[in-house]
Write a structure and sequence with these properties.
With 171 residues, this protein is an alpha+beta fold. The protein contains three helices and eight strands. Strand 7 and strand 8 form a beta hairpin. The relative contact order is 0.19.
């Protein structure tokens, strides 16, 4: 698998839409790069977006058992619920990753969360996930179960295999 782009909006500390395109310069020719910035600038959120889009989960939420409930404007949720990555005060947000699969096909994995009635205090709705074949354009899967099965097939990595990589937090 090769990551081609990471996009997102309204995730944790990143309020506006963002895109990191690894197919354009200067990243295209960079063999290695560093993610740097001040505390709260969104360095970890970039890695969260990658994990959310591909796996619907992110390591920052895995502390403890996650059985405790946390207060949310639309009610309560479990502390390890991926929807808690939605920026406070936002009605919706998303994470997308374009990647070249092990089969040589370009895919786009997407995770999205939204609140009822598009209101920042609305109840959180079920997260939506999809996997699109960018070569042929059809959405290959638009349900969580199929995406959970298909992403590891196309990337060659399960979420558990990626977790050690995502624990290498930016400095």
């Amino acid at each position: 698998m090769r990551i081609l782009a990471i996009r997102g909006c309204n995730l944790n500390s990143l309020a506006d839409a963002f895109e990191i395109d690894f197919t354009s310069e200067p990243l295209r020719s960079a063999g290695l790069f560093v993610i740097t910035g001040d505390t709260g600038a969104g360095k970890s959120t970039i890695l969260d977006a990658l994990c959310l889009a591909l796996y619907g989960e992110c390591p920052r939420l895995k502390s403890g058992e996650g059985k405790e409930a946390v207060v949310d404007p639309g009610g309560e949720m479990q502390a390890n619920d991926a929807r808690s990555c939605l920026r406070k005060g936002a009605a919706s947000g998303y994470a997308e990753v374009d990647y070249l699969g092990n089969d040589g096909v370009r895919y786009q994995a997407r995770w999205a969360a939204r609140r009822a009635h598009n209101r920042s205090d609305g109840k959180l709705q079920q997260a939506e996930r999809s996997l699109k074949n960018l070569e042929t354009k059809p959405v290959e899967a638009a349900n969580d179960t199929f995406v959970r099965e298909r992403v590891p097939q196309t990337t060659g990595l399960t979420y558990e295999e990626c977790r050690p990589l995502s624990r290498m937090r930016p400095h």
